[in-house]
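Reviewer comment 2.1 asked that we show a complete input and output for one of the modelled complexes. We chose the protoporphyrin IX containing FE case, as it is the one discussed in the main text.
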Amino acid sequence: MKKLLISSFVCALTMSGPAMANDVHPMCGETELAGIMGDMKDNMKAYKKAMKAGDTETMNVVAQDLLANIEKSDGLVPLQISDNKELTAAQQADFDQYQKGMAYLQESAEALSKATTDDERKAALSQIGKASKKGHKAFKMDCDD
Ligand code: HEM
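Response of the prediction step:
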C-alpha cells in the first residue's frame, strides 16, 4: 500500500511537471529590446563610476549614450505585449502606455544630462531607478519561470 502511494505520488509529480511550469517564451531575454536594455544597464554602471571619479566629460558622454538607447527602445514592442509587429487594438493601447513610461525615462535621463551638481545627479538617478522599476513591473516578462 505504501509503495503504491509513493509511486502514485511520484507519478502525479512527473505528470504535473510540464503542466505546472510556466512556458517561457523562446525569445525571452533574446529580443532587440532586451539587448538595448542590457546596454542601458552598462550605461548606468559607467555613469555611476564616472560620477565617483568626478569625471564630468565621461558622465556627459554616457548620458548621451543612454538617451540614444532610450530613443531606440521607444520604438520596440515589449515581448509581453506582442511578439510581432501587427498589434491588436488592446496591444496598441498597452504599447502606448509603454511609450509613456519611456517618455518619463527620457525626461529623467535628460535631467541627468543637464545636472551640474552631485545632488542633481543623484535626484535624476533616483528618478531613472523609479522609471525602470515601474516599467519592468508593467512590461517585462519574467524569463526565469
Ligand atoms: C535606465 C533604465 C533601465 C535599465 C537600466 C533597464 C535594464 C533592463 C535589463 C537589464 C533588462 C533585462 C534584459 C535581458 O533580459 O537581457 C530589461 C528588460 C526590459 N525592460 Fe528595462 N531597463 C530600464 C528601463 C525600462 C523602462 C522605463 C521600461 C518600460 C517603460 C523598461 C522595459 C523593459 C522591458 C519590456 C524588458 C524586457 C525586454 C523584452 O520585452 O524583450 N525598461 N531592462
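The two ends are 35 Å apart (CA to CA). We note this here for comparison with the apo prediction described in Section 3.2.
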